[in-house]
Structure formats: structure tokens, C-alpha cells
Specification:
Elements: H1 3-15, E1 18-22, H2 47-59, E2 64-68, H3 78-88, E3 92-97, H4 105-114, E4 118-122, H5 128-135, H6 140-153, E5 157-163, H7 172-182, E6 186-190, H8 196-200, H9 202-205, H10 209-220, E7 229-233, H11 252-258, H12 261-270, H13 287-299, E8 301-303, H14 309-312, E9 324-326, H15 333-343, E10 346-347, E11 364-365, H16 366-372
Parallel strand pairs: 1-2, 2-3, 3-4, 4-5, 5-6, 6-7
Antiparallel strand pairs: 8-9, 10-11
Helix pairs in contact: 2-3, 7-10, 11-15
Bound molecules: iron/sulfur cluster (2 copies).
One iron/sulfur cluster binds next to α13.
């Protein structure tokens, strides 16, 4: 499969309408970077509520139902839920799990018989020690590996989620190679976000782009394998120079923002900041977006960003009049997100640190970088000044270059 075709397929899948349904608020692992831990209270969602939710998603046009948790395998009526989702009309049912329950062969067979199509397993290393250091549960490694084997034996579509963090970063490429040998061809590499356990364990989890890049590059090299699908999730674009085809489709931002719709609208309406606003913003992939919302509230309008000097100079992109987004009474978050993606979602290369325009420049629009690569940005060397290559201090913004 050509790289172009692969990108087209990935974009199509990214834009497919999916409906996420939370089945439980309980999990049998306690991962160091679990962003959900604070919402877990040991309960499961009532069956009737799940059915209502599934119907709503289907009526809104979703063809894929994604069953998640906590861990959804701990819901006592999981098989009925899968059957019901199929009856409602979903063409594709996907389960997101740590895979431990799949170690029981009868359980996995039951999922197949109920009509489940795809299983995404969260397996953050191929090595027992770091695996259990991350899950914080002894015995979880063997169970999850057995679960993976059973999922493959029962011929589910199988994909693997890996949360990249300080513990598994150095062996990421080996982990991918190990699972590829097992027969897995699809991976989602997730960047941690500062919520739940991940925020409490931030010093063990978060990594700087300067230190991570060499390991990530090695792992991303594998995506050249034409039969392999590697996705990234929330990973800032700066980590992906040289592998721009792996930059997450910007439309995915919409799901993330929609999940925070109430809080964001509340902020605009009554000025109450999101509960998470503060120290953790510098670790969060939504930092630029939230900063823009603050600016919109303060100024009542927001202009499109200017193209970078290195592109304007070559007449590649010339923008005459900036676009403006006005804060109106009937504020529409979806339209604002569209404006943000098109006119404000700009990214820089690591090389930009050595450019004399660094401090006045926002970089280039994300779609331009996805299409043409960071190579189009040509830094103007610093004159009579030393470029700063030092690491940012602890707690400083991780995503900005
Ligand atoms: S950037 Fe926004 S979503 Fe992220 S932690 Fe800050 S306020 Fe919360
Ligand atoms: S190289 Fe980077 S900092 Fe310099 S003008 Fe281009 S985008 Fe801006």
C-alpha cells in the first residue's frame, strides 16, 4: 500500500463518526498514567442507560460503537450490550480494554459469539517488569498477554494502545516489533495528559521532546512498513518532524473539546475557569486552545495567525487580510474550533529554536505541515547570538518548542 493511500485511509477512519459509550467506572489495573482514575468509583453504568446512549449515538449518525470504561470487560452484562448494539444497527463494535479478562478463553469466545468486531488492548510494554511497574498490578502482564493471544486466536481485529512515557520510551521500538511478530498490525501511540494518575505521577511520566525524539524516530521508522498502521494520539506535532504523516488529524481535536464543552462555555459565560486550569496546562495538548479562549473572552475577538516569515519570504503563503472570530452571545464552540484549526492551530519545528524570528513567529498552520512536512520551514540563523539548546526547567511547557 502506498504512503498516500495509507494517509487517505487513515483520514477516512479519523473522520468516521464513532460513538463512545462508557460501561464502567471501575478498572482492575491502576496505571501510573490513567487519566480516568479520579472518575472511577467502582460502579457500572445501568444497562438501560447504556442502551439509551447507544440509540442516541446511532440516531446521530454513528456507525461504530466504542465500548470503554474504566474497563468495560468488568460490566456483568457486556455480552447483552454488544448484542443490543448490533440490533440497534451499529456496523462495527469495538472494545477498549487492558485485556486481562480475555485471558479466560470462554470469555473471549463469548465476545465473538455476541458479535464484537474489534478489540483494542492497552499494552504498554512487551517486558514484564516495566509493564507491571506501569499497571501497578502483579500478574497483570501474563494475563494481558494471554488475552492478546486469545483475541488473535478468535480472529478479532486487534489493535494496541501504548501510552508513551518515561518508563517505556527507550524500548518503544522493541515493543512495537514484539507485537508485530505476534501478528498485530495497528497501533495507537498516546501522549499522556495531566489528569488523574498521570498528574499525580507527572515526574515519572512526562518526557521532553528533546530527550524523546531519538527514541520516537526509531519507533516511527516502522510505520514505513506498508502493512502497518501507526496512529498517534494527542502527541504534539513537534515530536513528529520527519514523520508528519503520523500527525493526528486535527479534526480529532473536536472530540476532545466537545468533552469539555460545558466547562469551556461556562468559562465564557461566567468567567469560571476549568477545574484543571493552572499548573497542569503546560503539560496539556489543549494549552494553545484554552489560551485562545481566554484571549477571546478578554478581547471579544480573535484574529487569524500570520504565516511564518520563512514562507512569506518565498511567497509561498501570502495572507492579505486576517480573518476575525467575534465573541457573540450565541457562541458556537464547534464553529470556534473550526476557526481555531484553520487559522490558529500553528506549529513549529524544533529547529525554530535556532531561528532569529523564533520569538515573533507562530510557525505554520497544521494542515500545511501535515501535507508538506516541517522541511518547508527554513530557519534564518541567529546572528551574533548563541542559540539556546538547554532543556526547559521542570514543570515548564512541554509541547511548545
Ligand atoms: S489547557 Fe485547558 S484542558 Fe488543559 S489543563 Fe489547562 S485548562 Fe485544562
Ligand atoms: S523557521 Fe520557524 S521560527 Fe523561523 S520563520 Fe520559519 S517557522 Fe518561524
Amino acid at each position: 500500500m502506498s504512503a498516500e493511500n495509507k494517509l487517505k485511509i487513515k483520514d477516512k477512519i479519523a473522520q468516521e463518526k464513532k460513538h463512545w459509550v462508557r460501561l464502567t467506572r471501575v478498572c482492575n489495573n491502576n496505571c501510573l498514567f490513567c487519566l480516568d482514575k479520579d472518575s472511577q468509583n467502582g460502579t457500572v453504568t445501568p444497562f438501560s442507560q447504556i442502551v439509551k446512549d447507544l440509540k442516541k449515538g446511532y440516531q446521530e449518525g454513528a456507525s461504530r460503537a466504542i465500548l470503554s470504561g474504566g474497563d468495560p470487560t468488568l460490566h456483568p452484562r457486556l455480552l447483552e450490550i454488544i448484542k443490543k448494539a448490533k440490533m440497534i444497527g451499529y456496523q462495527h463494535i469495538q472494545l477498549i480494554t487492558n485485556g486481562r479478562m480475555l485471558a479466560y478463553e470462554n470469555f473471549t469466545r463469548g465476545l465473538k459469539q455476541a458479535g464484537l468486531d474489534e478489540i483494542t488492548l492497552s499494552l504498554h510494554s512487551h517486558l514484564r517488569k516495566p509493564f507491571e511497574e506501569m499497571t501497578q498490578v502483579k500478574g497483570s502482564y501474563l494475563q494481558s498477554m494471554r488475552g492478546l493471544q486469545n483475541a488473535l486466536n478468535y480472529r478479532f481485529i486487534v489493535s494496541i494502545d501504548i501510552v508513551i512515557n518515561k518508563i517505556n520510551l527507550g524500548t518503544l521500538k522493541d515493543t512495537l516489533k514484539f507485537f508485530i511478530k505476534f501478528g498485530v498490525t495497528e497501533f495507537d501511540l498516546l501522549h499522556p495528559i495531566p489528569f488523574g494518575n498521570a498528574w499525580r505521577n507527572k515526574d515519572k511520566i512526562f518526557y521532553s521532546v528533546a530527550k524523546a525524539k531519538k527514541y520516537l524516530d526509531k519507533a516511527f521508522e516502522l510505520s514505513k512498513n506498508r502493512d502497518l498502521f501507526i496512529w498517534t494520539n494527542r502527541l504534539p506535532a513537534v515530536f513528529l518532524e520527519g514523520h508528519e504523516e503520523l500527525i493526528q488529524h486535527p479534526i480529532k481535536l473536536k472530540d476532545e473539546i466537545k468533552n469539555r464543552e460545558k466547562g469551556l462555555k461556562n468559562y465564557l459565560k461566567i468567567g469560571q475557569p476549568l477545574f484543571c486550569f493552572g499548573g497542569r496546562c503546560s503539560y496539556c495538548f489543549l494549552e494553545e486552545f484554552c489560551q485562545d479562549l481566554i484571549e477571546l473572552k478578554n478581547k471579544g475577538k480573535l484574529f487569524s495567525k500570520l504565516p511564518p516569515r520563512c514562507l512569506v519570504a518565498k511567497n509561498r503563503t501570502v495572507q492579505t487580510k486576517p480573518k476575525t472570530f467575534w465573541l457573540a452571545k450565541n457562541f458556537n464552540l464547534d464553529k470556534f474550533t473550526d476557526f481555531y484549526i484553520k487559522h490558529r492551530y500553528f506549529v513549529k519545528s524544533l529547529r525554530c529554536r535556532r531561528c532569529q524570528f523564533y520569538n515573533q513567529c507562530d510557525g505554520a498552520q497544521i494542515d500545511e505541515i501535515r501535507a508538506k512536512g516541517f522541511g518547508i520551514l527554513k530557519q534564518r540563523p541567529l546572528k551574533n547570538l548563541l542559540a539556546c539548546h538547554c532543556e526547559r526547567p521542570k514543570g515548564a511547557r512541554q509541547t511548545r518548542v
